[in-house]
Amino acid sequence: xDKRSGFHFDVKWVFILLIxxxxxxFLVFPLLYLLFRAFFADGSFSLDAVKRIYSYSLNWDCLxxxxxxxxxSMVFGVLIAFPLAWLVTRTNLYGRGFxxxxxxxxxxxxxxxxxxxxxxxxxxxVGTVNxxxxxxxxxxxxxxxxxxxxxxxxxxxxxxxxxxxxLLCRAxxxxxxxxxxxxxxxxxxxxKTLFTVTLPMMLPSIGSSAIMVFVAAASCYGIPSIIxxxxxxxxxxxxxxEYVATGTSQGLADATVLSVFLMVLSLVLLLLSNLLMGKKNxxxxxxxxxxxxxxxxRKWRIPLTILTSIFAIVIIVIPFLSVIATSFTQNMxxxxxxxxxxxxxxxxxxxxxxxxxxxxxxxxITATLAATLGMIICIIMAYxxxxxxxxxxxxxxxxxxxxxxxxxxxIALALIMTMSGRFGLNxxxxxxxxxxxYMIKYMMMGMQSTISGFSQIGPVxxxxxxxxxxxxxxxxxxxxxxxxxxxxxxxxxxxxIPSFYxxxxxNLLYSxxxxxxxxxxxxxxxNSSQQTAAALACCILLLVLILNLVMRKLTKGKVSI
Amino acid sequence: xxxxxxxxxxxxYGKVDVLKGFTETFTDGEFITLLGPSGCGxxxxxxxxxxxxxxxxxEIWLDEKPVSTDTVFxxxxxxxxxxxxxSYAVWPHMNVFKNVAYPLKLRKxxxxxxxxxxxxxxxxxxxxxxxxxxxxxxxxxxxxxVALARALVAEPGVLLLDEPLSNLDAKLRExxxxxxKDLQKRLGISILYVTHxxxxxxxxxxxxxxxxxxxxxxxxxxxxxxxxPANDFVDQFVGQVIRDQMADIESFSGVRG
Lengths: 561, 257
Prior knowledge:
Mean pLDDT of chain B: 90
Oligomer: heterodimer
Number of strands of chain B: 10
Number of strands of chain A: 0
Order of helices and strands of chain A: HHHHHHHHHHHHHHHHHHHHHHH
Largest sheet of chain A: none
Distance between the termini of chain B: 51 Å
CATH class of the largest domain in chain A: Mainly Alpha
Largest interface: A-B, 27 and 30 residues
CATH topology of the largest domain in chain A: MetI-like fold
Strand content of chain A: under 5%
Low-confidence stretches of chain B: none
Order of helices and strands of chain B: EEEHEEEHHHEHEHEEHH
Largest sheet of chain B: 6 strands, mixed
Structural class of chain B: alpha/beta
CATH architecture of the largest domain in chain A: Orthogonal Bundle
Strand content of chain B: 15-25%
């Protein structure tokens, strides 16, 4: 299509260069600078900063904690996600569609909400579950303590297994069902088929989803900051944040070294995951006869449905109820149902305090800008990838994936180091720096949505418009964008939602004037009022739920989270 | 001994009637083709016989044994059939030998016997030299042969083939047609073959069952179907297409010489 020769001016080049410039300035340069600072702090190569950082035992603890919690969450997350994904995509489990949606929904819940909920439930002194169990069995000591490595693993697992679940569901749905049917007709029972055909063929996806969980858990800030604080349990992310918070140049230097470690770890693992998935795509996707091959669970149907329900209640229902209950509790030492302990004043706070309203407005503005600007880039990039064979189109694509794979703390720190005027551009303390950070981190998800939309629309439709005499911009406006609308809407929400409640980056990049909702909630949670934080969290959850319903409606059920 | 008896089979998906009272008996050693346009219910019929789905009503008997009735339903693994899928469904994580050996391993045959049988069947499909290859190193035609070998290795009485040639190029299709036909004669098995390709059906089958909208339009030898179509649909769908093809060939050879 685009093999015109000579120096013909092509408007597409303008777009690709603008996108490339954006990514170079706000992603590549800051990250490279971070690397540079870690090893060339004084202009010449030196490992002094590295040596200093690793001479503190506290830093070794935080490295160890990160690796242990992320590894265990990865193992448990996959152990939970694969059976669940198999049950909802491949069997006649009762309510499998409902369960699928339910487990996917938790993907859109901010992780710090999980930490808040489980803290209330498993706090060694007043945790609801502990109190109930103590009374029930006459125990003298609380059976659970959330402020431990185990507690952190538990919360990380319950909030990051959906990453693996989504990936595995998609992989199972895209697998040619004939592959399993061939095993059945060869004489294999459903269980034998699962273990000799389905599972081995899913190994690349399982490996890749395990890596996703590991990286997400290792880069998580919301959970370890809330769970880890009381027990002085540090991870790399919380440690980086503390170093940055000191505001000294040595603090920044130390944060830099730690974040380079986290960045390299994440990116190497994600590269590995891409290799795994690349191999997988070549062999198991057939695109033909996509009839779902449903395994009849027979006598296991009811027990497995009950088991799945119990899991959903423990992982989703109880924590959310606990957050709701907290938001109505006057005295946190007592049950919400105790005499005179029910109050709505924290909800009143949420809707009347001007600081909270201001933060909500800030979040609304920054998330809307990030989603809108992000989607413009996504649409153009998806178009260039799917519809042209323009040289260099893969570079911005790679950079966008690279940005999303970079841990949030690292992005934020890199932006602080480079965009505070040192290089002539001072965005620190502005909304722009927040918008840029959100775009870098979440643009890829919007792009995936747009690309899958493109895959469903044949290029012929656009060619028909071209033959009718429509130029490129005209074709985008009249044909491509209207047909892509559902995917674009979905992509917009997928960027908007996590940007709206973002905590990790905002917490490093906000100023008093640009305080966001995530930071506001976090400050209430850590400093003054857990109940106000809980009420805020309820509002966020409600909003996520409503947006998800709107998204379904707008895309006619085709796209939801 | 392999007889398939289908009695008043119906199949509904929601409100859509895919099969409306399908009754037919396929006898031992026959090459039967289910022929019809896409959506006529032919593949559904094959899947019901294989046991991947259960009929809404009606009975399926294999060798005088009920495998699917109101009260009985044998899963595919207990029906002892062989099947070749449209997408071949060769397992990408096993090499050729392991793919073909899989049905025998499930039957817990001794290792030596498995080796013998797999080598024998690979020879039949002319793949003996590629036993160690992985599927992604094979061409479409070669994967097809692996799928065929895997379906034959446990010596089923009936072989089910679901549009097995539709993913091959025209030339390969031609030669595979002949090979499958030879194989059936040599091994003396029954074949139930599903296709939408008229000339494929007429050239290979002992008997053709023409279907449309879930109903059998006509069942008979290829000659009967071609020369004595039972209704307009059969005449249009089979007769007209073949006549057009022949006319094309004639006009082409007329021009040439």
